[in-house]
Amino acid sequence: MKQLQKLKDKPDAEISSKFFQQSVKMFDPRTGNYDTKHERALCRMVSGLPPAIMLATDAYNLSRMMDDDPAAAKKRKESKIPSGNEPSGYERLFNACNVWSFE
User: Is 53's pLDDT higher than 80?
Assistant: First the structure.
């Protein structure tokens, strides 16, 4: 809007020239194509997310450790399905085939 007010009394050729220069400004190799404020904010969010998740998990685990009843924990442990830390037969076979194929 400020551009229009400045160019109000100018000839049409000058007005179209100014608008054309403004429209191709982002393709000029001497100027940057983006504003770095957005990039910095995105980088801060992305780099700050993993530590925030770790801190939240630690705080949750600490609160559970301090407040849980040992009898309730034992009951939960007995009813819990094994998480599968030990590899299954298929995993062992797959790993053995990989080791043998790359020898």
Answer: yes
